[in-house]
Design brief:
Elements: H1 2-12, E1 15-26, E2 33-44, E3 48-52, H2 59-67, E4 74-83, E5 86-87, H3 93-99, E6 104-107, H4 111-114, H5 121-133, H6 137-150, H7 156-159, H8 169-181, E7 187-191, H9 199-212, E8 217-222, H10 225-231, E9 234-239, E10 242-248, H11 249-254, H12 259-269
Parallel strand pairs: 3-8, 3-9, 6-7, 7-8
Antiparallel strand pairs: 1-2, 1-4, 4-5, 9-10
Length: 282
């Protein structure tokens, strides 16, 4: 009931993010491969949309397309990505850099490889605050310490000068969330943010993301249906680059309409089970 009510309320609000007919392709000419095909969804302020599916389903490519982080040789072939009423594929490189980190925050799966190993964690936050908020170096440092405290990192005045390898996995992920939320973005994209964490830390990180969603839209990419169940208001299920089911989290998880969704749920209960639906499944 809670998820259904939230989904209804969010549907009435103007979307922060609108994805319309998104198609992502790799290669050129006869060697083109479609990785995401004709994908559409919206996310409103205060809402968490989860995109779930097995590896290769296109969920991370979708996040990368929205975040402007598609790898070399991969491109948006069709469709529109609209953030706060502004179509972002048409932006120049300079406009895109201004957007990233200010209106879009990213939380990645592996913060150890995402952070620069030869720079302190705090230096990245200070640089981002100075660039996007126009703060002086001292004010940016104070804002960075505040951001680390907001994600409940202990002794933020000391951790700001720590290198990534000096933090635990959970602490690095909290620091990554602090960086993503630092400049008050309207959209946060979290791509498998809890995969490398133990169960207790997973719940803490998910609670931070859920709390951060109160004033922004959150797109959560995950293969873990349990993570989606405790975090998301709506769930979109992807298979082979296409959406096969989309609806309120409670309905999708409790009364799945598509055979692939049912297979995913069955695989979650039996980890060795195949996730492909039986022949003839809808």
């Amino acid at each position: 009931m809670r998820h259904t009510t939230l989904a209804t309320a969010h549907a009435a609000a103007a979307p922060v993010l609108e994805v319309d007919g998104l198609t992502v392709r790799a290669g050129t000419g006869r060697g083109v491969t479609t990785l995401v095909e004709d994908l559409s969804f919206t996310i409103a302020t205060g809402e968490v949309l989860g995109i779930v599916g097995e590896s290769g389903s296109g969920k991370s490519m979708t996040a990368s397309a929205i975040g402007g982080l598609l790898p070399a040789g991969v491109h948006v072939g069709a469709g529109r990505i609209v953030l706060e009423g502004r179509e972002i594929q048409a932006l120049s490189a300079a406009q895109r850099r201004a957007l990233d980190g200010s209106r879009i925050g990213m939380v990645f799966q592996d913060p150890l490889s995402s952070f620069n190993p030869v720079r302190t964690v705090g230096s990245l936050l200070v640089e981002s605050a100075a660039r996007h908020q126009g703060l002086t170096a001292s004010d940016a440092r104070r804002r960075a310490i505040q951001a680390l405290a907001e994600v409940r990192l202990p002794r933020p005045e000391q951790l700001i000068d720590a290198y990534p390898h000096q933090l635990s996995g959970g602490q690095r992920q909290r620091a990554m969330i602090a960086l993503a939320l630092l400049n008050g973005p309207s959209l946060v994209i979290a791509d498998e943010p809890t995969t490398a964490l133990d169960a207790t830390v997973q719940l803490q990180v998910l609670a931070l993301l859920k709390r951060g969603a109160a004033s922004r839209a959150v797109l959560l990419i995950t293969h873990d249906l349990a993570v989606a169940a405790v975090t998301c208001d709506r769930i979109l299920v992807m298979q082979r680059g296409r959406s096969v089911e989309h609806g309120p989290a409670a309905r999708v998880l409790d009364l799945p309409a598509h055979g692939y969704t049912r297979a995913l749920l069955d695989a979650a209960r039996r980890p060795t089970a195949a996730v492909e639906p039986a022949p003839g499944a809808p």
